[in-house]
Amino acid sequence: MIPQSFNTSPVPRWQRFKRFSMVGDWHMHTNYTDGHSSIEDYFIEAQRKGLKFIALTEHVRRTLTYDYAEFREEVYRCGKKFDIAFAVGAEAKVLNVDGELDISEEVRNLADLIIFAFHSRYFKTKKDYINAIINTIRHADVDVWAHPTLYAQRMGFKLSNNDLIRVGEALERYQVCLEINYKYNVPSDDFLRSVLAHHTINIVIGSDAHRASDILCPEDLLSTKRRIHRLRSI
User: Fold this and answer.
1) Residues 194, 198, 200, CA angle at the centre, nearest 5°?
2) Predicted model pTM
C-alpha cells in the first residue's frame, strides 16, 4: 500500500520536516535513475554516519522510465528498518519562464518534497532566468531551490543586487527553502551574505549524492551551520 501523500495542506510540504533543516541531507539520487547506490545503501550509510534525516529526491520527468509510486513505497518499506527520519522527494527541472515543471500530477501528489532545478539550457538571458526562478517559486508548489545559481555560473550570468533582492523576496514570501549544495559548492558566500542580510530565508543542506558514500556527515552540517551564522552576522 502506498503511504498517504502529505502535500494537501496549504502549509508547505517541507514544514513537516523543518526540524531537520540543518541536521539532515536533503538531496540524493539512487539507482532508480542516475545514482549508483540503492535505497537501502543510503539508509545504511546515513545510520553509519549518524544522520538524523535524509531526503531521497529522485529525478523525475512527466514521462518516467521507472515507477515513482514503487520508488516511494520501497523508501517507506526500507525506512521502517532504520531509526532515521526520511522524506521521499522529487527533483524536477524548470521548463520555461512561467515556472512550469517537468513533473506529472501523479508524482506531484505522491512526493513529500519537490525540489526544483535548472538543467537544460532553455534560458538564454539573465532576465528570463531570474523570471523563471521567481515564477517557479510563486506558482509551481515547490519546497526547495536545488543547487541555486549553478545555472547562472554555467551561463555566465552575473546577478545584480536587484536580482538578489527579487529572488530573496520570493523565497521569503512563499516560504521556499534555499539549498546549500555540497556537490557544486553553491551558492557562494557573496550570494548568501546579500540574501540573508535582507530576508529571512529557510535553508536546507544537500549533498546531491549519487553514491551513498557521498552523503553528508554531522561534521559537514555543523560546518555549514557555522558558515551561515557567520554570514548572517556580517
Assistant:
1) 110
2) 0.94
